[in-house]
Design goal:
heterodimer; A: alpha+beta; 6-stranded mixed sheet; 5-stranded antiparallel sheet; 18 strands; 26% helix; elongated; B: mainly alpha; MetI-like fold; 13 helices
């Protein structure tokens, strides 16, 4: 696995549980040691297996926000924030003043003297953020910082994190399970599968051109993999393992991928007659309301190839879509641009 | 049945001396001397155990190294060893002809049959109680807090002083109290290694045993005192940690 993060950039790591996201952060922070390879910050080696270099965590210019915050239970919020400053020789009075300032910036001036046990989850998260930022680290590592929060504080904090992460001269690495966070906060997104980066790029690139089934599922798009066949009439078809679809002809040939936005698929009870070149038939496998409020519904259809379409709840109700209902799925070929 | 076995000797002790005369008997020179010496030596022994035991507890709890299980067994050994055996060992080591004794004698220091020997004997038998409890306390501090300290650029020393020690403080105090109570009751190693010199090495348990033949009342008075003190320590240990923890979690720091 190899990647670089530039200043003012946020790299979002996504992947299934156990894929190795947290491990990557712990290696960068210096809490665990890799078996091989190297870690550098602005060219300074933090870890270099061959040269025997391993800078301990506490000497690295890297702040790490763990998933569970790990606020010290025996210290007040203010003393938690002042902890890193005190450890680095800042005098008690100055450290306290800077800690209060850092808490003010996250909107928590009034809980300076409270113990972590007296704070709500969102407040604890803000204290942990202030505690990490007060040291003005060059690198900020965040491990699912919003996963333990309720929906409302999640939205608020996500907006705050946006301003923090895109601060100047700070490179951030952000681990999440949540596509909304990945798209909102990431300058680039890296998908980790079984310990390897399978795709890295801007959120837009991952959305438009996912390379693996996991990335496509994470971004919520259909991914078809197959062989492009050009017919005599000049039309192109992608032959997948199960069925084929008409696609745009971009001159590419061979084994290609095609991404299909579920919102570009229309569902019909009768065979539609229209301009869409692709009209496939199959029973509905599953209906799943889209979070958070379920105003839209994802419909998995057992066509060949199998597809997921997204329609409004109103449409799903007026068509009386149910599991097992046979439907027609229609989508245009021109929107499907094959890529490698 | 078992409860009777526990309760009867204690009741017998308590009923032997009317509470009113207990205070009066405490004034007897033999009793006073023994109490004074016991307080002095157990305080010194507890300090010694804490200072020397902390690094050992840290090592055992936080690091892994070859021979760790052997070291742990060695630490527990004084708990099961007959104290007289410990006394003989100490005598052979620190006596005039002993391994360390010869070195000390060259410097003009002789340990056996001194108050210092009492402290050493008490520390020897009491150390495991502190080390075991302190190590358990260190292990209970979740690694994530030490990780957080490290990523906040706190060196090992700062993390030790401001995270590990404060977070395991209840266990450290409990361990110190346990080892103090054990030191207070020390008999076998003391009489073997330090002898029985009133005012110098005759601690309360020794005085209890000696006075049994000459002054039964003094013996019983000291016994009652030891029972009360030991029982108080044990009650305190069960009551205090919860209190301490909830106090520390709840109370916001006073303005400074």
């Amino acid at each position: 696995m190899s990647f670089e993060v530039a200043p003012a950039e946020t790299l979002v790591l996504v992947g299934e549980s156990g894929a190795g996201k947290t491990t990557v952060l712990r290696l960068l922070a210096g809490l665990d040691e890799p078996d091989a390879g190297s870690i550098r910050l602005w060219g300074e080696p933090y870890f270099e297996k061959n040269a025997g270099v391993s800078v301990p965590a506490w000497r690295r210019d890297i702040a790490y926000l763990s998933q569970d915050y790990a606020l010290f239970p025996h210290l007040s919020a203010g003393d938690n924030v002042a902890f890193g400053l005190r450890a680095n020789g800042v005098r008690a009075r100055d450290a306290r003043a800077r800690a209060v300032g850092a808490l003010e910036r996250v909107g928590l001036a009034d809980v300076t003297r409270h113990r972590p046990g007296q704070l709500s989850g969102g407040q604890q998260q803000r204290v942990a953020l202030a505690r990490a930022l007060v040291l003005e680290p060059s690198v900020l590592l965040l491990d699912e910082p919003l996963s333990a929060l309720d929906l409302r504080s999640r939205g608020e904090l996500r907006a705050e994190l946006r301003t923090v992460l895109h601060g100047p001269a700070r490179a951030s690495v952000y681990v999440t399970h949540n596509p909304v966070e990945a798209i909102a906060l990431g300058t680039r997104v890296a998908a980790i599968e079984a310990g390897h980066i399978t795709q890295i790029g801007t959120p837009d690139e991952l959305l438009r051109r996912p390379r693996t089934p996991y990335v496509a599922a994470f971004m919520g798009v259909n991914l078809l993999r197959g062989r492009l066949i050009r017919a005599a009439d000049g039309r192109a078809r992608l032959e997948t393992a199960a069925g084929s679809v008409a696609v745009a002809d971009t001159g590419e040939e061979g084994d290609l991928l095609v991404a299909l936005d579920p919102r570009d698929i229309t569902l019909h009870l009768d065979r539609p007659v229209g301009s869409a070149q692709n009209v496939l038939r199959g029973p509905i496998l599953e209906l799943r309301p889209e979070p958070p409020f379920g105003e839209r519904v994802r419909v998995a259809v057992q066509t060949e190839p199998p597809l997921v379409a997204e329609v409004t709840r109103y449409a799903a109700e007026s068509l009386r879509l149910q599991e097992g209902t046979p439907v027609w799925a229609a989508f245009k070929a021109t929107g499907l641009r094959p890529y490698r | 049945m078992l409860l009777c076995l526990f309760a009867l000797p204690l009741l017998a002790l308590l009923f032997r001396v009317p509470p009113a005369s207990l205070l009066q008997r405490l004034g007897q020179p033999v009793v006073l001397e023994a109490v004074r010496l016991s307080l002095l030596t157990t305080a010194a022994a507890t300090c010694l155990v804490v200072v020397l035991g902390l690094p050992v507890a840290y090592l055992v709890a936080m690091r892994s190294f070859p021979g760790k299980r052997m070291l742990e067994a060695l630490i527990d050994l004084p708990m099961v060893l007959p104290p007289t055996v410990a006394g003989v060992g100490l005598l052979l080591a620190f006596g005039r002809a002993g391994l360390a004794g010869r070195v000390l004698a060259a410097g003009g220091i002789s340990l056996p049959f001194t108050t210092a020997a009492v402290v050493l004997a008490q520390a020897f038998v009491a150390a495991p109680f502190f080390i075991t409890t302190a190590a358990a306390g260190f292990r209970e501090v979740e690694p994530r807090y030490l990780d957080a300290a490290a990523t906040l650029r706190a060196g090992p020393g700062f993390a030790l002083r401001h995270v590990l020690l404060p977070m395991s403080l209840p266990s450290l105090l409990a361990g110190a109290a346990m080892s103090w109570a054990r030191a207070l009751g020390e008999f076998g190693a003391t009489i073997t290694f330090a002898g029985n010199l009133p005012g110098r090495t005759q601690t309360m348990p020794l005085a209890v045993y000696i006075a049994l033949q000459t002054d039964l009342d003094a013996s019983v008075t000291l016994s009652v005192l030891l029972v009360l003190v030991s029982f108080s320590v044990l009650v305190l240990l069960r009551w205090a940690p919860g209190r301490l923890a909830s106090f520390r979690a709840r109370a916001p720091r006073p303005a400074s």
